[in-house]
């Protein structure tokens, strides 16, 4: 029986060595607020603890949506209209979590089970592999409510899908269905709605058999490459290769190759 751990508007389900993170406020279609971002941060820290034994994580949404973007309906201290400085809120509550996802110590898959709007799309972009249900769609809705795209979208999207498509996505703020997102190169896979999580779990299970510590270094290599000069990138790769070459899994990988057998990686 899988174990569930609850945080603020986020849950973590343990499925062997796979952690399934769910944005968990289905009544708002998992709309983002500082409370949920705090819960997501706690969930990521929980998963990274060595004693938990996780080697891959899947981020998805509870219910019929992945994430509907910023919570525009909440009242009280998180009411978006009561925030005097939205940039301050991003710096304090949102961007530290994006950095935490970027520096996550294991593969992070994203299973987009429904609409991914606004900041929800930005969260999806943090995945190493993005899988989507056929009924899912992607939309940057900022221009429809008088805000500027954030969450790193104006920086990431031109690098992923090119400037022309980025401008279309940002300025027109129209829906991009899953199949079109796949054709654009925005996501990696599309699956039938009822098969999405199974597909994500199957891929995650495969990755748990890989050398987890090295996969963390690989994540750093391509994230940092986005703003490195060529010579800086070569130096980074040399530094990371030094670290990779000292892992137990590297020694195991070489021995398995020499002995013509499958390697048994332990993630260290």
Radius of gyration: 19 Å
Mean residue pLDDT: 94
Would you count the extended β strands for me? 10
* Second CATH tier, the architecture of the largest domain: Alpha-Beta Complex
Cα-to-Cα separation, first versus last residue: 27 Å
| Helical stretch tally | 11
Spatial strand arrangement across the major sheet:
1-2-3-4-5-7-10
H/E topology pattern: EEEHEHEEHEEHHHEHEHHHH
Give the structural class: alpha/beta
Point out poorly predicted stretches: none
Beta-strand content? 15-25%
What is the C-level CATH assignment of the largest domain? Alpha Beta
Identify the CATH homologous superfamily of the largest domain.
2-enoyl-CoA Hydratase, Chain A, domain 1
Helicity, in percent?
A: 40-55%
Question: Top keywords for this entry?
Answer:
2-enoyl-CoA Hydratase, Chain A, domain 1, 268 residues, alpha/beta, 2 domains, seven-stranded mixed beta sheet, globular
């Amino acid at each position: 029986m899988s174990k569930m751990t609850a945080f603020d508007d986020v849950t973590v389900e343990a499925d062997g060595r796979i952690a399934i993170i769910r944005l968990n406020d289905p009544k708002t279609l998992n709309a983002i607020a500082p409370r949920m971002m705090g819960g997501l941060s706690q969930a990521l820290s929980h998963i990274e603890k060595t004693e938990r034994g996780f080697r891959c994580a899947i981020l998805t949404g509870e219910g019929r949506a992945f994430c509907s973007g910023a919570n525009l309906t909440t009242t009280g201290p998180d009411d978006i209209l009561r925030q005097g400085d939205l940039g301050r809120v991003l710096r304090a509550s949102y961007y530290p979590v994006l950095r935490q996802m970027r520096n996550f110590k294991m593969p992070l898959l994203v299973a987009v089970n429904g609409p991914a709007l606004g900041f929800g799309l930005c969260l999806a972009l943090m995945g190493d592999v993005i899988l989507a249900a056929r009924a899912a769609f992607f939309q940057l809705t900022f221009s429809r409510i008088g805000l500027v795209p954030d969450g790193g979208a104006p920086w990431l999207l031109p690098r992923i899908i090119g400037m022309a498509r980025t401008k279309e996505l940002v300025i027109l703020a129209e829906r991009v269905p899953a199949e079109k997102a796949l054709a654009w190169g925005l996501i990696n896979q599309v699956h039938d709605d009822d098969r999405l999580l199974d597909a994500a779990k199957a891929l995650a299970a495969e990755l748990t058999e890989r050398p987890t510590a090295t996969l963390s270094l690989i994540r750093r290599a391509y994230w940092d490459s986005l703003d490195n000069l060529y010579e800086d990138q070569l130096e980074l790769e040399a530094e990371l290769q030094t670290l990779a070459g000292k892992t137990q899994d590297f020694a195991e990988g070489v021995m398995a190759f020499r002995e013509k057998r499958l390697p048994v990686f332990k993630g260290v």
